[in-house]
Design brief:
246 residues; alpha/beta; seven-stranded mixed sheet; 9 strands
Length: 246
């Protein structure tokens, strides 16, 4: 199986080499990495190029002209992976919030579903112990808010650690996806649900970033709250199809 791991980056020079090493240490064959860098000021893009040389071309990089957003980074990465014959496509944050070793379990789960999700909110999942109560509450509320409005049964709809079947992504209307903050994750899952694709949630521990600075801000949170309501009308034409397996 050919697996492409898409990693959007902006100022992740401290994290990227460590993450690449961790991913290539997994007992998984056929794994390649695609870095989508938004013109990082700290040289992340150049480091990605160096990683490509070190790992004999197994790391590719897109250099974008500026901060164009998480959603467009993933869409660009998905399209590239599909064109180049990936069988499965993973999403993972560059900051080690997502445990890379869990990709092995996501791969196992993908045998019986269309998208495997690293989930903080199923039994066995957890958030960083160092997070204050208000931050944990905000994260939980954001999930409940989106799930309730959109009628999703998935427990973790905002998480960004996912492994998609390429056949699933190929059937998704990627040209219609417009969200750019973390609500991009909600939109993708909502569309997949409307099309009848089946998710499976694997428990993960979500750790706070080890190095660097968080990209989360108030503007992103406001976008997410408003965008969830917009999604209801945007995809009404898709209907609610019965679950299907491809």
């Amino acid at each position: 199986m050919k697996i492409t791991v898409v990693i959007p980056t902006y100022n992740e020079a401290e994290n990227l080499p460590k993450l690449v090493t961790a991913l290539f240490s997994l007992p998984v064959s056929g794994l390649d990495i695609l870095v989508v860098d938004d013109n990082s000021a700290d040289g992340t893009g150049k480091i990605a190029e160096e990683m490509g040389e070190k790992w004999n071309g197994r790391v590719a990089v897109f250099h974008r002209p500026g901060k164009l957003g998480l959603g467009t980074a993933y869409i660009q990465g998905f399209r590239h992976a599909l064109v180049h014959g990936a069988d499965a496509i993973a999403q993972i944050d560059a900051d080690f919030s997502h445990p890379p070793e869990k990709i092995v379990e996501l791969l196992d789960a993908l045998e019986t579903c269309d998208v495997a999700l690293g989930s903080r909110y199923v039994p066995g999942g957890s958030l960083d112990d160092k997070w204050p109560a208000w931050r944990k509450g905000l994260s939980s509320f954001g999930n409940i808010y989106a799930r309730t409005i959109l009628g999703l049964r998935t427990r973790d709809v905002t998480g960004g650690f996912r492994l998609w079947r390429s056949l699933t992504l190929a059937k998704m209307p990627l040209d219609r996806i417009r969200s750019n903050g973390y609500v991009f994750q909600v939109e993708m899952l909502y569309v997949a649900n409307k099309l009848g694709f089946r998710p499976s949630e694997i428990p993960i521990h979500f750790a706070d970033r080890r190095w660097g600075k968080s990209k989360m801000n108030l503007r992103i949170q406001i976008e997410a709250a408003l965008r969830v309501w917009q999604l209801l009308g945007m995809y009404r034409d898709l209907g609610n199809k019965p679950a299907l397996q491809i």
